[in-house]
Design goal:
By secondary structure, the protein is of the alpha+beta class. It has nine helices and four strands. It has a four-stranded mixed β-sheet with strand order 2-1-3-4. Helix 1 packs parallel to helix 3, helix 4 runs parallel beside helix 7 and helix 6 packs across helix 8. It is globular and about 50 Å long.
Length: 228
Amino acid sequence: MTMRTLFHYAHDPLARQVRLILHEKNLDIQDKVLHPLDSLDEIVAMNPAGSLPVLVDEPPTGGRVAICPVGSIIEYLEEAYPLPALFPATSAARAETRRLIHWFNDKFNGEVHPLLSDQYITKRLRRMGQPDPEKLRLGRDAIAWHLDYINFLTEERDWLGGDRFSVVDLVCAAHLSVLDYIDALPWKDFARARDWYARIKSRPSFRPLLADRVDGLPAARHYTDLDF
């Protein structure tokens, strides 16, 4: 039996997208959840950068491999386990998929999470005090801008990357799920984005994420509601 382990922080949006992809591909996973104050010596042995997530796999071709960062994990899982396919078939569509993955994992990740989820979740876990009100204000502006872009994408597409469900939907939903936990998403102002997210949230692969909790920080009331 293949031993596949994902080393990650519980509410890291980058790890959450890997978990979603693994479940969509029906791949068993052993979660190794680290606390932000834990030693990273074991991680550095696998990833000299000392960053998470790291996926350790025994691929069909044999051997044992540690994969990181998240972009490499996404590409690896699609190449090593091509069914069901989460990338589109054409080169042009795959290029658009990669553009949007980069958008959410670089631009969105850098512009939104330090101002919102890091203020509520990471600060609590690292015992760094209360959220900074000014950063929260800037975060609300940033997430509104990005939700407007998600609205725009869904105006002429059935899914974010095109006419078919793809890895892009999982990547974006993973980011939003962390923000939804802390009730940081103004859904009433972005109906198209909300309706798209509801479709992703209802998928079986999403159930493990909805069970995650942060000690001392309850989830938003609607967090597990599929008809929010």
